[in-house]
Amino acid sequence: MSSLAFATEPRSTGARRGAVGILVAVLLWEVATRLDEWIGLAVPFVARLPSPTEVVVDLGGLVSSPGYWNSWSLSLQRVALGFTVALLLGGGLGLLMATRPLVKQTFYPVLETLRPIPPLAWVPLAIIFWPTQELSIAFVTFLGAFFPIIVNTVSGADEIDPRYLWAARSMGANRRVLFRRVILPATLPSLVTGASVGMGITWEVVVAAELISGGGQGGGDGGLGFLVWNAYQGGDLPRVVVAMISLGIAGYVASALVRYVGDRLMPWKQAAVS
Amino acid sequence: MTTPGPTSAPRGATTVERLTHRVDTGADGAPVVQDCSFALAPGEIVAMIGPSGCGKSTIGHLLAGYGRPQAGRIAVDGRPVTGPSAERLLLFQENALLPWLTTLGNILFGPRARGESVAESTAVAHALLARMGLSEFADRYPAELSGGMRRRAELARALINDPVVLILDEPFRGLDAMTRELMQEFTAELLAERRRTTLFITTDIDEAFLMADRVLVMSNQPTRVLEDITVDLPRPRLRSDLLADERSQQAKRHALDVLTGARV
Question: A246 FRET partner, CA 20 to 30 A, in A16, B74, B192, B220?
Answer without folding.
Answer: A16
